[in-house]
Amino acid sequence: MSVLALKADKRRPHGPSRVQQFLPLFPPSLILLLFFAIPMGMMVGLSFQQSDASGLTLASYERFFSDQFTLMGMARTVVMSGLVAICVTIMAYPVAYFLARSKSRWRALVFALAIAPELAGVVLRTYGWLIILENQGFINNALIWLGVIAEPLPLAKNMFGVVVGLTHVILPFGILSLLTSLQGVDPNLEKSAQILGASRASVIRHIVVPLTVPGIVSSMLLAFTMSASAYATPAILGGAGFKVLATMIYEQVLFYIDWSFAAVMANVLLVMMLIVALIGTRLEARLHQKLHT
Amino acid sequence: MKPIYIAASLLASAAFASPTMARDLIVNSYGGPYEQIIRDAIITPFEQEYGVRVIYDAVGSSSQDYAKIKATNGRPGFDVVVMTASQSLQGCEDGLLERFSPDTVPNLAHLNPEISAVAGPCGAVHELQYLSLLYRTDMVSESPQSWLDLFEDDLTGRVILPSFGNVMAAYLTQLMSVIHGGDLDSDIDPGFEAMTRLAAQSVGFEQASAILESYIVDGRVWAMPFWDGRAQLLVDSGAPVDYVLPEEGSVPLIATLNVPIGAQNKELALAFVDFFLEKTSQERWVEGYKVGSARADIEVSDQAQDRKITSQADLDALYLPDLLSLASNLSAWGERWEREVVPAAR
Predict the structure, then answer these.
(1) Which CATH code is given to the segment(s) A58-291?
(2) Given the DSSP bridges, would you call strands B24-28 and B80-84 parallel, antiparallel or unpaired?
C-alpha cells in the first residue's frame, strides 16, 4: 500500500513553479517600486542637498536636530499620535467586541454607524468639530448658557481638540482592525470559562484581551501612523501654535520653499513611524510567546 | 482581435491621449468668485480675439502651483499661471519661468517700472492690491484711520491676524516695523514687538483668506488686516464692513502672470499675458475684480479711482519691500513669529 501511495504521489502533477508563485506579486511590487520606493529614495537624496551648496551636506539635518522648535514639533507629533492610538483602541474595542459577538438585530446598524464617519470627508468632519469645540462653539455656548462656566473652556486650537478630531477620523479603522482579531477568537473558549465559573470581566481580562493582542497592537500602530501623517485635522483644530511634523512639512514645501528641510522632516517622520512599528511588532511577538508558554 | 482587446485599446487611447488641442491654452488661476470675473473680463474676450479655446484650471493656490512647477522642472501642464512677485523672482532664479521682454510682451512697456522691477523679468504684473484695514461698520464707532487703531482697548479680543503661512503676516510685520521706528528689512525688531502686542489683543490666527474673512462677516471680530480687493468684494456682498488705506501707508500684493519654461503653447501664452496687460483689459480687470493696476494710464470709474491703486500718486504712496531680501529672511522670521508672536495670542 505504501509503495502504491508513493507511486501515486510521484504521478501527481507538480504545483506551481517558483516563478508562477511570485507572478501575482509582480504588479503590486512594480507599483510600490515606481510610486513609493523611487520617490522615497529621491526624497532621501533631497534631504542631503542644499540649493546654495554643491554636493551632499548634512546642513538640513544639523538644523533640524539643533532647533528646539522643530524638536518640539517632533515631540508633539509623538505625544499626539500616542494619545490618539490609545483613545482609538480603547473606544474601538467595545464596539468591535459587540460586532464580533452580538446576534442582535441592531448589529448591522451599529456596524453602519461605526464606519459612517468615513462617508464624510476629513475636512468636513474636522470643521464640524471646530464648530462644536471652539470658544463660541456648541459646547461652550451650552455650558455658559446653563451657568456651568463663565469663560469658554479651551477645547479647540490645542492638543485636546486635535486628539478629539483625529480619534473620530481614525476610530473606524481601529474598529475594523480589532473586529478581525476578535472574530478569530473561538466564542466557545469564553463559554467554557463561564461554565467553569469565571465572571464576565474575568473572561474578558484573562481570555479575550490576551488572545486579541495582535489586533490591539495593529489598531494602535494603524492609529499612530495615521495620526502622525495627518495634516488637515492638526492644521484646522490645532490652530497656528500647534505645529506637528506634517504641518511643518507643508509649510516648508509651499511657503518657505525649502524642500531639503521638508525632506529631512519627512524622513524623520518615516523613521519615527518605522521605530514605533518595530517596537509594536516586537511587543506583540513577546506577548504572544508569553501567552503560549 | 477579440472585442475585449479592441475595447481595452480604445480605453487606453482615450486615457493616454492628450485631452487638449494644439490651440488650447491652459490657464491656471484661482477658483471661487475670481473664476467668473476672469472669464468675463479676460478669457472670453481673448478667446474671441484669437479664435482659441482657454482651458481654465482652478486647482491649487499660487504656492501649490509654484511647487508643481518646481517638482516638474518647469513643465507643470499649464501654459500661464497667476502667482505673486515673490514666486516670480524665485522661479526666475531657479530657471523655471520664462523671461519676458517688451519684444515678447509689448505691453510690459506700459507698466510702472518700479513695480515691474520688484517682480523681476519673469513676472508680468497684472494686478495690485494693498493691505487695508477692514472693519465692521456696525461695531466700530469711528472709522479707523491708522494701523495703530488696531491696538485700541475697544478692539481687545476683536481682532484676527493672519498666520505666518499667509504672506500678509510678513507684510504686516514690516509695516508695523516702519510705523514703530524700524524699517522693512534690516531693523525689523520694532515690527515683531508690535505684532507681539497686537497678538495679545487678537483672538488668534488663521491662514486662509476665506477663513479670515468669515470671522469679520459673522461678527466674531471687528477689525483685521485684509487685501483691498477681497475687502471690496465683501463690501459689495452687503456685509456690514468697510476698509481704509491707513494714513501710515501700506504695502502692495503684487500679482503676476507667469509662463513656465516648459509651457507647451508658449507663443499663445505670451499673447495671453500681453492681452491681459492691454489698457482695456486692465480697465475691465480693475472694475471687475476691484483691484489696482500697475498701468497708470487706465481710465476707470470714480469709485475705482478713489479706492484702488490706479495712478502714479497711488503707486508712489506704497512701501515696496525687497522681495529677495524678504525671501532670505522669511524662514528666520517665521521661526521668530512662532516663538514670540503666536504664544502671545489670547
Answers:
(1) 1.10.3720.10
(2) parallel
